[in-house]
Design goal:
- The complex is a heterodimer of chains A (328) and B (326).
- Chain A is mainly alpha-helical and 328 residues long.
- Chain A has 15 helices and no strands.
- Chain A is globular.
- Chain B has a two-stranded antiparallel ribbon with strand order 1-2.
- Helices cover 74% and strands 1% of the residues of chain B.
- Chain B is built from 13 helices and two strands; from the N terminus they run ααααααββααααααα.
- Chain B has a single domain, classed as ABC transporter involved in vitamin B12 uptake, BtuC.
- Chain B is globular.
- Chain B is mainly α and 326 residues long.
- Classes of the chains: A mainly alpha (328), B mainly alpha (326).
- At the A-B interface, helix 7, helix 11, helix 13 and helix 15 of A face helix 5, helix 11 and helix 13 of B.
C-alpha cells in the first residue's frame, strides 16, 4: 500500500530516502520531535550525559526487543517476556549463591533458563501448532509459578555477581556504558543474521507465507523453534543485565517490558503479521519508547497518566502507519 | 445424520467442560471438611462466577477469531468505578450500576472500533487499550478503598430461599438476557461466520463488521458485570495490575477448557462458563488437599499449559501436511 501511494513523490527524491521505509522515517522524526519537546521543557535534555544515560536505559529494552523482533518477523508473538526476564535475573542471582563455580556460571545459567522457556514455546508453536500468543501466555504462567515456588513469594535475597554489575553499569570503553556496547554487539549480530544468512532469509520467508517456505524445502518448524529459543534467551539476558543494574532481582521486574518491547518493534515498522521489517526500525522504536518514558517521568507524570499516554500513543502511531490493508 | 447427532457434535466441547466440572466439583466437595453444604456451594459459586463472567466476555471475542487481552483491565476499571458510584439511595445505586455497565460497553466498543474500523491486530490493540484502562483504574483508585451499597451486595452474593446462591442466579440471568439473544441473532451468527471463514462470510453478504463490533462491545459489557460483582464481593475497589493480568490469563484458560476454538467460529459461552467453574475448582483442590498455597500459581499454569496442548491432538487428524500452516 505504502509503495503505491508515495510512489509519485518518492520518484523525485534521492535514492537513500526512496529506499527507506516510511515507518522508520516516521519513528526517527518522532524521536527528533520528542527531543525538541524535551529541550523546551529542560535545557539539560540535550546534554551528552543525559542522552548517554538514556541510551544506557534503552539498551536493556533493546536487547529484549531484539528477541521479540525475531519472533514477530515470523508472524508470531512472545508474551512470555515478563517472566523470562524475571527468571533469567533470579536464576542468575540464585546461581551466584553457590560458591565460585556458581558465580562463574551465573550469567550462562540465567540465559539457559530463558532458552529453556523459549524452547517450550517453540515446540508448542512449531510442532504442536498452538497459537503463539496462547502457548507463550501459558509458559509465562508456568515460569511465574516456578519462580513463586522458588522464592517463596518474596523478592529473592541473592544479589547480582560482580560480572553482572560490570556488564550493566561498567565502562570498558571510556565514556560508553557497557550496556550500550552489548546492545550494539547483539544488534550487529542480528542485522548480520537477518540480512546475510540463510536463516535470516528463511525467517522473512516464513513470516510471509509459511506454506510456501515449507514447500521450498525449508524445515520451517526447526527455524521457528530456534527463533523462540533465541527470543527467550535474549529476554533472560535482558533480565540478567537488569539484575546487574539494580544489583538484585525482583518479583515483577519483567512486567514493565512486555508492552514496550512489542511496541518498540511494531512502531519501528515491523509488520505484526510478519515477513516485513528492519532492525534499524526496531532501534528507532526502542529509542522512541525510552525517550517517551523519560519525558513522562521528567514531567513527574504519575504511573496512571503514564500508562494512559503510553497506550494512546501506541494506538495512535499504529493507526498512522501500522494498519492492515483494506480487505478485498 | 440425525438431528440429535448434529446437536451432540455442536455441543461436544460444552458437554466435555460440564463433565470435567462435575468430576472436579465432586472431588472437591467430597474432600472438603464441611462437605456438600449450602455454604460451601455459595463460596465456590461466588468465586467461580467472577471468572465465569470474564470468560464469557473472552468467548465473544474469541469466537470472531480475535483475542481480547484487555478484559482483565476492563474488569479492574469497572471494579474501581463501581466502588465510587454504586452507593447511596436506591436511585443513585441504580444510576451507578447503569454507569458502570455503560463504561464497560464503551471500553469494549473502543476495542472493537480500533480493531475493525482501524484495521489493527486485536492482540496489539487490546494490550495497548488494556494499558489505558489500567491507567484510568489507577487514576480512580490510587489506593484500595471505596465502598458499595451493602444491601444490594449482600442480596446478590447471598442465597435465595437459603439454598440457591444468588450469584449463580445472576449468572443464569445474564446468560438468558445477553448470550442467548446474541448467539441466536443475525449479529451473533455473523460473529461466528466471521470467525469461521471471514472471506466466505463476506462473500455471502453476512454483516461481519457489525457482528464483530457487537461481539467486542458485549465483551466489554460482560467484563463490566464481572467487575460489578467483584465490588459486591470485596466491598472495595482496587487497581491491582497482577490481578487484572491473572483474570485475562485465566479467561483464556477457561475458554480453552470450555471447548471454544481459539481459531474462531466454534464453541459457546456456556462451555466457557463451565470451563471457568472447572478451572476455579481445580485451583481450590489444592486447598482441600492441604498443599502449600505457594504452589497454586504453578499448578494453575501447568493446567493451562496442558489444556492448550490438548488442542494439538487435532494434528493427528490432518491428512495433508500443508494444513499445518493455517
Amino acid at each position: 500500500m505504502s509503495e503505491t501511494t508515495i510512489g509519485g513523490i518518492a520518484g523525485r527524491m534521492p535514492k537513500f530516502v526512496r529506499r527507506a521505509d516510511p515507518a522508520v522515517l516516521t519513528a526517527f522524526a518522532c524521536i527528533v520531535l520528542l527531543l525538541f519537546v524535551g529541550s523546551l521543557y529542560s535545557r539539560s535534555f540535550l546534554s551528552p550525559e543525559y542522552l548517554l544515560q538514556q541510551l544506557k536505559v534503552a539498551s536493556f529494552l533493546g536487547v529484549i526487543a531484539t528477541g521479540m523482533m525475531l519472533v514477530i518477523l515470523l508472524g508470531q508473538i512472545d508474551l512470555s517476556v515478563p517472566w523470562s526476564v524475571a527468571a533469567g535475573a533470579m536464576m542468575a542471582c540464585a546461581a551466584a549463591a553457590y560458591g565460585p563455580v556458581g558465580v562463574a556460571l551465573a550469567i550462562p545459567f540465567g540465559i539457559f533458563c530463558g532458552v529453556a522457556i523459549g524452547v517450550v514455546n517453540g515446540i508448542g508453536v512449531a510442532y504442536l501448532r498452538i497459537p503463539s500468543m496462547i502457548i507463550t501466555l501459558a509458559t509465562n504462567a508456568v515460569a511465574q509459578g516456578l519462580m513463586v515456588v522458588y522464592t517463596g513469594g518474596f523478592s529473592p535475597q541473592d544479589s547480582a555477581t560482580r560480572a553482572m554489575r560490570y556488564l550493566a553499569t561498567g565502562f570498558a570503553i571510556p565514556g560508553v556504558p557497557n550496556a550500550v556496547v552489548i546492545w550494539a554487539l547483539i544488534g550487529a549480530a542480528m542485522v548480520f543474521v537477518l540480512t546475510r544468512t540463510g536463516f535470516g532469509r528463511t525467517v522473512y520467508g516464513i513470516g510471509n507465507r509459511e506454506r510456501a517456505a515449507y514447500l521450498s524445502g525449508i524445515d520451517t518448524r526447526r527455524v521457528v523453534l530456534i527463533a523462540f529459543a533465541v527470543s527467550g534467551g535474549l529476554s533472560a539476558f535482558g533480565g540478567v543485565l537488569l539484575a546487574g543494574y539494580a544489583s538484585k532481582a525482583a518479583q515483577s521486574m519483567g512486567d514493565a517490558y512486555l508492552l514496550p518491547s512489542i511496541a518498540a518493534v511494531v512502531l519501528g515498522g515491523t509488520s505484526i503479521l510478519g515477513g516485513r521489517g528492519s532492525y534499524l526500525g526496531t532501534v528507532a522504536g526502542v529509542i522512541l519508547i525510552t525517550l517517551l518514558q523519560s519525558i513522562l517521568s521528567v514531567m513527574q507524570m504519575p504511573e496512571a497518566g503514564r500508562q494512559i499516554i503510553y497506550g494512546v500513543v501506541i494506538v495512535a502511531m499504529l493507526l498512522l502507519y501500522g494498519r492492515a490493508p483494506a480487505s478485498r | 445424520m440425525k438431528d440429535w447427532r448434529y446437536w451432540l457434535a455442536e455441543q461436544r466441547g460444552t458437554l466435555l467442560a460440564f463433565g470435567i466440572f462435575i468430576v472436579m466439583f465432586t472431588i472437591y466437595t467430597s474432600n472438603h471438611p464441611a462437605g456438600f453444604t449450602a455454604n460451601v456451594v455459595q463460596t465456590a459459586s461466588n468465586k467461580g462466577v467472577l471468572l465465569a463472567f470474564v470468560a464469557m466476555a473472552q468467548t465473544l471475542v474469541v469466537i470472531t477469531a480475535g483475542i481480547d487481552l484487555s478484559v482483565g483491565m476492563i474488569f479492574l476499571l469497572t471494579n474501581c468505578l463501581a466502588s465510587w458510584l454504586v452507593i447511596g439511595t436506591g436511585i443513585e445505586t441504580a444510576f451507578g450500576v447503569v454507569a458502570v455497565l455503560g463504561t464497560g460497553l464503551l471500553c469494549g466498543a473502543i476495542n472493537g472500533a480500533i480493531v475493525i474500523y482501524g484495521r489493527l491486530q486485536p492482540i496489539v490493540t487490546t494490550i495497548a487499550t488494556g494499558a489505558v484502562y489500567f491507567g484510568i483504574a489507577l487514576l480512580l483508585r490510587p489506593f484500595p478503598g471505596g465502598s458499595v451499597n451493602e444491601d444490594l451486595a449482600d442480596a446478590l452474593t447471598g442465597r435465595l430461599f437459603g439454598v440457591v446462591p444468588a450469584s449463580l442466579v445472576a449468572l443464569l440471568a445474564v446468560v438468558l438476557v445477553v448470550w442467548m439473544p446474541f448467539s441466536r441473532s443475525v449479529l451473533g451468527r455473523a460473529a461466528y461466520a466471521a470467525g469461521s471463514s471471514e472471506m466466505a462470510a463476506y462473500m455471502s453478504g453476512v454483516p461481519i463488521r457489525r457482528g464483530k463490533f457487537a461481539a467486542y462491545a458485549l465483551a466489554g459489557l460482560l467484563a463490566a458485570i464481572g467487575g460489578l460483582f467483584l465490588t459486591f464481593f470485596t466491598y472495595t475497589g482496587e487497581a491491582a495490575y497482577a490481578s487484572g493480568n491473572a483474570y485475562t490469563l485465566f479467561s483464556i484458560a477457561a475458554v480453552v477448557l470450555g471447548g471454544v476454538s481459539l481459531f474462531g467460529g466454534k464453541g459457546s459461552a456456556i462451555g466457557a462458563i463451565f470451563g471457568a467453574l472447572a478451572f476455579r475448582t481445580i485451583g481450590d483442590l489444592l486447598f482441600v488437599f492441604d498443599f502449600d498455597p505457594l504452589w497454586q500459581p504453578l499448578f494453575q499454569g501447568v493446567i493451562l499449559l496442558i489444556a492448550v496442548s490438548l488442542g494439538a491432538f487435532a494434528l493427528f487428524r490432518v491428512r495433508n501436511r500443508l494444513e499445518w500452516f493455517l
